[in-house]
Amino acid sequence: MLQLEGIRVLDFTQYLAGPTVGRLMAEMGAEIIKIEIAPTGDPARGLPIADDGRSGYFIQQNRGKKSLGLDLKKPESDKILRELIKTVDVVVENFGPGVMEKKGLAWPDIQAINPEVIMASISAYGRESPLSHKTGYDWVAQAFAGIMHMTGQRDGPPMPVGIGVADVSSGVHAFSAIGYALFNRTRTGRGQWLDISMVDAMFHMHDISLQGFTLTKGEFKPHRQGNHHELIAPFGVFHGPSGYICILSLQPQWKNVCAAIGRPELELDPRYADPPSRGTRQLEIIEIIENWMKAFPDNDAVLDHLEKHRVPAAPVMDPSDAINHPYFRERGMINEIVDPVMGPLAIPGFPLRFSEQPERLELVAPTLGQHNAEVLSGLLGYSSEQISALQASGVLVERDR
């Protein structure tokens, strides 16, 4: 049995943060009914790399979902949504501020329709916050949460992380919260509302920034460190013979580093004996290691040598190179799928492994409104005549992309 088999989700999400929730739940067997708003559905359908209303971006985030295309301006759509809410276990939404309230589908409204339902709202600043009125996307969350402040060269400007880390992280946080809410419901019979903020998800990632500032009474100021940690060495990104290599050494590994580079005398050299000493002589250590690397033909040879000495190190991997790397292949993290519209493409695989659900599901992203009739007839008991009338009046929308 699949982990979430029998769990039904009503998905009001678009783009990335919200769809991440349904994507993970679909991989575990949940039934996801995705509401797509007329006329074009999820705006992600038009994001690169796109082909006339179908995109790899949409495919990756919406595989295994059922698409119900509705014109939400028509009163018949409101009736359909309220009927569906009675049948589901979870509602997920990531609309802008006030949208669900205007539709009469905020948490108090949904709770009144189905007291056992779990609702997850994902937004930039949270629904209950002094900034709940503000809109925001991934980089805005990175900026406000201080992640951007910590990223980049020490003497350079703040830099965003180059992927949708705030979107995906908040989606994963919502996914985990839903799991615990479902568990709590088995004990109490009650649903609940989950208010997930992208900023909160980012801010939670700070490790030393807050504690360091408060414990030193403000003497320590969180700041960008560039590609080498300023307090530890070697601990950063080094220029190897054929690209970049990340080497990390805490005190237990320093002896191994010295042996690996053929400089065992450095282990007890008072200039490098402890982390603070090595941190102050970071540039010397970087030069020693990068000069040592020059004797090797390529990065693979360097990494093999470091592995023999148990030094934590890894190549700085280009995602396109990862597609053929044995690690990602054997872990199932390269998922090569064939979309019925766009053809073959590779996407990241499911990151969770369960001994009780070892199989990987073959999922397909829907075309817009593909499951209109299935959802209305199968769940709500609409007749074919009723469905035809809704199609004719424009309440239901569908496209072949």
Give an account of the 3D structure.
The chain has a 6-stranded parallel sheet, sandwiched between helices. Strand 1, helix 1 and strand 2 form a beta-alpha-beta unit. The model has no long low-confidence stretch (mean pLDDT 96). The protein has 2 domains: 8-204 and 329-392, Crotonobetainyl-coa:carnitine coa-transferase, domain 1 (Rossmann fold); 235-317, 2-Layer Sandwich (formyl-coa transferase, domain 3). By secondary structure, the chain is of the alpha/beta class. The protein contains 17 helices and 11 strands. The protein has helices spanning 17-27, 56-62, 75-85, 99-102, 107-113, 138-144, 165-188, 198-203, 209-215, 251-260, 275-280, 282-293, 299-308, 319-322, 326-330, 372-380, 384-392, and strands at residues 8-12, 31-37, 65-70, 90-93, 118-123, 193-197, 235-240, 243-248, 313-315, 334-339, 343-348.
Please give a handful of descriptors for the protein shown.
about 400 residues, alpha/beta, Rossmann fold, formyl-coa transferase, domain 3, 2 domains, 6-stranded parallel beta sheet, 3-stranded antiparallel beta sheet, 17 helices
What order do the SSEs take from the amino end to the carboxyl end, as H and E? Answer: EHEHEHEHHEHHEHHEEHHHHEHHEEHH
Give a count of the beta strands, DSSP E runs of length 2 or more: 11
In total, the number of domains comes to 2
Number of helices: 17
Q: Name the strands of the widest sheet in spatial order.
A: 3-2-1-4-5-6
- Mean of residue pLDDT values: 96
- What do we call the CATH homologous superfamily of the largest domain? Crotonobetainyl-coa:carnitine coa-transferase, domain 1
Helix content: 25-40%
Strand residues, percent: 5-15%
Q: What is the CATH topology classification name of the largest domain?
A: Rossmann fold
